Amino acid sequence: xxxxxxxxxxxxxxxxxxxxxxxxLGAGELAFVTGHSGAGKSTxxxxxxxxxxxxxxxxxxxxxxLGSVRRRGIARVRRGVGMVFQDHRLLLDRSVFDxxxxxxxxxxxxxxxxxxxxxxxxxxxxxxxxEKSAPSMLSAGEQQRVGIARAIVxxxxxxxxxxxxGNLDPQLAAEIMALFGxxxxxxxxxxxxxxxxxxxxxxxxxxxxxxxxxxIDDFKPHNIGP
Amino acid sequence: xxxxxxxxxxxPAAPEPxxxxxxxxxxxxxxxxxxxxxxxxxxxxxATALTLAVLGFALALPLLFWLLVDNARGLAGDVGEASQIxxxxxxxxxxxxxxxLAVRLRARADVISVAVKTPEQGLDEFRERSGFADALKVLHxxxxxAVLIIDPRGDPDAFVAxxxxxxxxxxxxxxxxxxxxxxxxxxxxxxxxxxxxxLLALAALLVIGNTVRLDIAGRxxxxxxMQLLGADAGFVRRPFLYSGLWYGTFxxxxxxxxxxxxxxxxxxxxxxxxxxYEHAFAVHGLSLLQAxxxxxxxxxxxxxxxxxxxxxxxxxxxxx
Lengths: 226, 320
Description:
Number of domains of chain B: 2
Shape of chain A: globular
Radius of gyration of chain A: 17 Å
Strand content of chain A: 25-35%
Distance between the termini of chain A: 27 Å
Strand order of the largest sheet of chain B: 2-3-1-4
Structural class of chain A: alpha/beta
Distance between the termini of chain B: 24 Å
Number of helices of chain B: 11
Helix content of chain A: 25-40%
Strand content of chain B: 5-15%
Strand order of the largest sheet of chain A: 6-7-8-3-9-10
Shape of chain B: elongated
Largest sheet of chain A: 6 strands, mixed
Order of helices and strands of chain B: HHHEHEHHEHEHHHH
Largest interface: A-B, 40 and 33 residues
Number of strands of chain B: 4
Oligomer: heterodimer
Largest sheet of chain B: 4 strands, antiparallel
Radius of gyration of chain B: 34 Å
Order of helices and strands of chain A: EEEHEEHEHHHEHEHEE
Structural class of chain B: alpha+beta
């Protein structure tokens, strides 16, 4: 589903964010990317969503070599990748419903279909009763859950999350992580960047450890999560 | 859309929106953009009014200038298209000498026709036209000379020179000369209006582009999020294109209103002028068709200005 083949990313300022990175993630697999800050976790995710292009190597998502995607095709690739951000990036002048509906509106789904799917997504994250609220009325954990609902509403085959629990207290963080665990069960390939190693280990999923842009460990902890 | 369906086939959790829906969804999106962009303009009435005023004046000025030139051309056209030559004969020329000259001139290859106006005909005409009938009664004799009105063929300069040398010819009046000068002046005015229109249309394009650019800068976070979620350039651009379209359309309407106001203000003095000239020249404004063209052109300008501004911003949000 997601393969990195000897991928390197050097930013224009000369900083090597990733070097010689290779791994493969199967369809429907959930994996964490962890490492100290600046290890290249975000860059890795940005390559999957075509927010950046690698300077060397090849990234393949769902059988598609992203290097062959032209500028005009970037939008289509991104529609196949659900994204969750640390700062949730919701549009504050729109209701929860409208925020979650955005990927479907962009995809050109008809209105009834949008309403049905948005409610299903909100139901999944437990916020069905807040659809008319403004995002600013919600707690940090609820905002992040709206962000997740937005990422999954169009049912993308790939879901990536960059520090989704970075702003949350431990209990909320555990709840959010458990939520991601559910998407794996419906066949979505999930890749989550997090520096919270204890939490990541408790989830009992595959963990990729980055250090200075290099993959230094790729393991699966044995103790199954909470 | 079809490719999306293929992509998601592995995971048949829920059906993708089917292709048959997409046209309706497309129409809904456009209608939504059309009215939401209007609402956005209405949300900032002062800024919008100011922008529209600038645009309206920029469009109205060349139109007014063009109307002025066009009307002047209409007036000049009334004087007659022909480049007629009037030869005033010496007062003591006998009637048969006049006819003889006319016959001789008619025989020339460079003359199409010669009309003879006897002093009597001239007097009658003068009486009718000038309103000096009473004053003319005082005169014991007819002071008017015989006149030959000649329609020349080709370039009449050589002919005019020969005519001046005729013994019986007192004076030659060649209308074409001042007509040429008038036409040259009007041509210059028309070209000036075109240049002015071009420059001010460019200014309108820049004003709309800049307004949309500010609009985009104010919503850059929204655009960034939409691009992250996979919105293509057309989707991101669309609301701004509609804003530009509205700016252009309203500016066009405003310029037409300005022209109507100027016309209304000038109507009374122009009417007096026409009466004083005993000559019913009608001052014309823009025809319905011309007004429609102005609206369509200004709407197109708005769309174009927004397109340039939005495209530039969108390109910055994507990796190469």
